[in-house]
């Protein structure tokens, strides 16, 4: 029996409908969710992604600003823009599109974003919150992968999840989210001698390497769930993932396609984080003005 497709476009539509409904409620109370997206340089793929993010904001009823800067925009000027957005009450999320030009230190830029607006979940503090099981913004791609796994109805408790890839943006946070869901987690990477040995034991495989055909049918246990985070081009220039989709579909119980799997969910969870940022800001404001709560009103920075 071929694997069931986990449809990221369909799940995104469902989640985005709910996000739009909650955004409209906030807007009616005078607190429309707002996302600022900054892009530096002229990488064409980055411009496509950024355009998609801004478009998704519009469709969800969010306010959004897109700031585009030339490749020679200075680090100091970028940090200044972030400082301004950090105190802009109309902005609840700030995303600086990666990669940045080489003269800009990405770490400096990420850490400059107010934690309350770090909707990418890329900052050291957001990463620490994830490690410590504290509330905070989850990186959008792994967060989206968890939502995709949820649609299978399979409880992760006690299941063996194998993450292939250890990037700070996907592999590492993915492993932590799976761990939070009570899976037994293995992280494999470029120095793992026999990848198939590990993946063949997996009930769930998350492939986030950036190399096509990294996971083939012989490396998958029958009935496994396979989530493909990869975004590569094949010889015909067509978008493909890290998983040999045709082969693995014959073995897995559930599989995500590329495109149409994880990609759309990344943007959906960005909207979700921005919405939740706006909701938290409003909740804080309501507590701050409630005299019964005995709180001193704080300056409006979130
Ligand atoms: N600060 C920052 N945050 C990011 O979240 C971030 C980033 N930088 N830099 C680049 C990567 C890449 N990324 C994608 C988002 C959606 C799709 C997406 O929607 N993909 C569609 C297909 C798109 C197509 O056809 O080209 C899909 O998989 O179905 C892809 C890639 C976010 N990124």
TrEMBL record:
Domain Tetrahydrofolate dehydrogenase/cyclohydrolase NAD(P)-binding: 139-280
The UniProt record lists the keyword NADP: yes
Pathway in which the depicted protein is active: One-carbon metabolism; tetrahydrofolate interconversion
UniProt keyword terms in alphabetical order: Amino-acid biosynthesis, Histidine biosynthesis, Hydrolase, Methionine biosynthesis, Multifunctional enzyme, NADP, One-carbon metabolism, Oxidoreductase, Purine biosynthesis
Domain of life (superkingdom): Bacteria
GO molecular function: methenyltetrahydrofolate cyclohydrolase activity; methylenetetrahydrofolate dehydrogenase (NADP+) activity
Its EC number(s): 1.5.1.5, 3.5.4.9
Xref: Pfam families: THF_DHG_CYH, THF_DHG_CYH_C
Catalytic activity: (6R)-5,10-methylene-5,6,7,8-tetrahydrofolate + NADP(+) = (6R)-5,10-methenyltetrahydrofolate + NADPH; (6R)-5,10-methenyltetrahydrofolate + H2O = (6R)-10-formyltetrahydrofolate + H(+)
Similarity annotation: Belongs to the tetrahydrofolate dehydrogenase/cyclohydrolase family.
Summary of subunit composition and partner proteins: Homodimer.
Protein's name in the database: Bifunctional protein FolD
Organism placement in taxonomy: Bacteria, Pseudomonadati, Pseudomonadota, Betaproteobacteria, Burkholderiales
